[in-house]
Amino acid sequence: MNFEQGVLKYKEGDFEAALAIFTALIQHETENPTLYLYRGRVLTRLGKGMEALVDFDRLVELEPYNTDYISDRGVVLHLLGRNDAALDEL
């Protein structure tokens, strides 16, 4: 299992398979922001917003000035109904 397979499963809409791949990859590359980004997006699509928020929090920890990560985190906050926090992010 590798990153490309995870992206393929993500694009195919096979989110459970993509989640398994990205989770396994994160166990070996704990500082790779791209893996957290994809897993966070997968979790969001699976309706697991709180789990996704953990990944987006980690992303912002790794790269605090990356506007893409901050924006995605804001979207997750909005989906969780935390609109004031989402607005603060954006």
Account of the 3D structure:
It is built from six helices and no strands. Helices cover about 80% and strands about 0% of the residues. It is mostly helical and about 90 residues long. Helix 3 (about 35-45) runs antiparallel to helix 4 (about 50-60) and helix 4 (about 50-60) packs antiparallel against helix 5 (about 65-80).
How would you summarize this macromolecular structure in one to three sentences?
By secondary structure, the chain is mostly helical. The chain is 79% helix and 0% strand.
Output the radius of gyration: 13 Å
Strand content: under 5%
Helix content: over 70%
Number of strands: 0
- Low-pLDDT segments: none
Structural class: mainly alpha
Q: Based on CA inertia axes, which overall geometry fits? A: globular
Order of helices and strands: HHHHHH
How is the secondary structure organized here?
Layout: H1 3-12, H2 15-28, H3 33-45, H4 49-62, H5 67-79, H6 83-89
Helix pairs in contact: 1-2, 2-3, 3-4, 4-5, 5-6
